[in-house]
Specification:
The chain has about 500 residues and is mostly helical. The chain is built from 19 helices and no strands. The longest helix has about 40 residues.
Length: about 500
């Protein structure tokens, strides 16, 4: 299977997982909030953000290990790959113990920071179940994900995750509509994690036997400096991505945290779809980078163009539907959820992050962790300082202004570094690719704020969403025909390849 077909396979399977996540994530929190209330939804989302912050301990390992494996995969050097794999496992176990050590004081202090009047034991158990599940990632799961990603088989992860998502959703709904016990509901995540660990281990053992045959292979150079540099960037990234809910829940209340989480669900869901696009090509680009740099640049240019088209298409559709979604989705909830201006601010915050993803792909592939770490740290400082200063007077608007301000600083610098020091191209190429799509989301937001969408049920909204997605797609095709025909041709080629694969599968 060539790199392009493997990338499409990775993307389609990951897209199926993200679609399942979006659909189930649309339904489950709605009933969860209606049964347990906005305060418990805010607590649930805040706990998720705490765990996201703690998960940063593994990211410096992941980025460097994958980048290090690329050159040995290109050379088919199995002993060296195995050495990196087992060393990666050791590093994760060390971080697992650090994770547990950090978790203990958090379990003690977190209930004291929450302003709302909830039983302390409930807050502790919320954290405890989720922390045990997360610890399993460090001690077992993470190194499996590394090897599958490096070998361009991220579709395997997507398939396993989709099955486990469906399994855990069935368990969640069973608890929600029968015993309605908040603690039992939280324990479902732990059960699903244990099942996934067993299944993934069996797959790795069967399909990557050389790892176990070379378990005692000589070690390769351990890039500790790169790992520390990557970890610094990832810690800053977690501050950027995860502190908004923590700031809101501790300084503005859990209801505001719940409101934030509903809006964030939409933009984060789109971000996950775009991450699938990045992950689908990352390993293939990484291997090509070390084998043929000119070919890498050609493939990257095509990826970047298609990625930007997809990014603006998804966010344009989201802005068109955002207001109607919030009004329909939250009409039976115990708080007011729609506020003018929040949709465009949430989309702008995420869009600024997504527009730097192609640059991050080249930076991670080339291993330029040290060169760009300072940008991440400064962005995190800008984000946190402005959010803390504005959360009291402006609430959710304040933390979003902090996020946008930080992103406006870092994104141009990452793009400049990628263009100047890795791709060796003029920055005008990037600006042209972005600028061609900018008018469309602004038009969509204007329409959403001036035209009332005639829907009052979730089923009706879903039908509206399908119609809007098709309408926006036709608009993008027409716009592409006028403004960017080369990207349109590339997208048509991708669709043809996907349809050919589907037809071939049906005939087998």
């Amino acid at each position: 299977m060539n790199l392009k077909k493997r990338a499409l396979w990775n993307f389609s399977e990951s897209l199926a997982y993200q679609f399942s996540t979006l659909l189930l994530g649309l339904i489950l929190p709605k009933y969860y909030t209606e049964v347990f209330g906005s305060v418990y939804n805010g607590l649930n989302q805040t706990v998720s953000q705490v765990l996201s912050l703690l998960s940063v301990l593994q990211f410096g390992i992941a980025a460097v290990s994958i980048q290090q494996m690329f050159q040995y995969i290109a050379q088919n050097d199995e002993p060296s790959i195995a050495a990196i794999y087992w060393n990666t496992g050791k590093q994760y176990r060390k971080m697992g113990w650090v994770f547990l050590a950090v978790s203990v004081p958090i379990l003690a202090l977190f209930p004291l920071l929450i302003q709302d009047d909830l039983p302390k034991i409930i807050i502790v158990l919320f954290l405890l179940f989720r922390m045990i599940a997360s610890a399993g990632e460090y001690f077992f799961q993470a190194k499996y994900t590394i090897i599958l990603t490096a070998y361009n088989k991220s579709y395997v992860i997507s398939v396993f995750n989709t099955v486990m998502l469906l399994f855990s959703t069935v368990l969640h709904f069973s608890v929600l509509f029968t015993v309605k016990n908040i603690i039992l509901y939280q324990s479902v995540a732990l059960v699903a994690t244990l099942v996934r660990l067993v299944v993934v281990y069996a797959y790795i053992r069967k399909n990557f036997g050389f790892l176990y045959r070379n378990k005692n292979a000589a070690t390769v150079a351990d890039h500790k400096t790169k790992r520390k540099d990557a970890l610094i960037s990832e810690i800053a990234g977690m501050v950027i991505d995860s502190t908004d809910l923590l700031v809101l829940s501790t300084l503005s209340g859990l209801v505001n945290a719940s409101i934030y989480s509903i809006y964030s669900f939409v933009t984060s869901g789109i971000g996950n779809v775009l991450s699938s696009c990045r992950e689908a090509v990352f390993a293939g680009l990484g291997k090509t980078f070390f084998a043929d740099f000119d070919e890498f640049r050609r493939k990257f240019e095509r990826f970047e163009s298609v990625y930007f088209l997809l990014t603006f298409y998804l966010y344009t559709t989201a802005l068109l539907l955002f207001k109607s979604f919030i009004l329909v989705y939250t009409k039976k909830m115990d708080a007011t959820y729609y506020y003018v201006g929040l949709p465009i601010l949430f989309v702008l915050a995420r869009l600024l992050v997504n527009l730097r993803i192609p640059a991050i792909v080249t930076i991670n592939t080339a291993g330029h962790f040290s060169e760009v770490k300072k940008y991440a740290v400064i962005e995190a400082i800008i984000n946190l300082c402005i959010s803390l200063a504005l959360v009291k007077p402006l609430g959710i608007y304040g933390v979003l202004i902090g996020t946008i301000s930080g992103a406006l600083y870092r994104t141009p610098l990452l793009v400049r570094h990628s263009d100047k020091y890795i791709l060796k191209r003029k920055g005008s190429r990037y600006l042209k690719k972005v600028g061609v799509w900018l008018p469309l989301p602004l038009i969509a937001y204007g329409i959403s704020e001036t035209v009332d969408m005639p829907v009052d049920t979730l089923a009706g909204w879903l039908l509206l969403a399908v119609a809007a997605a098709v309408g926006v797609l036709l608009l993008f095709i027409l716009w592409s025909f006028v403004a960017d025909r080369s990207t349109l041709k590339e997208c048509i080629g991708i669709v043809k390849m996907l349809l050919h694969r589907k037809k071939r599968t049906e005939n087998q």
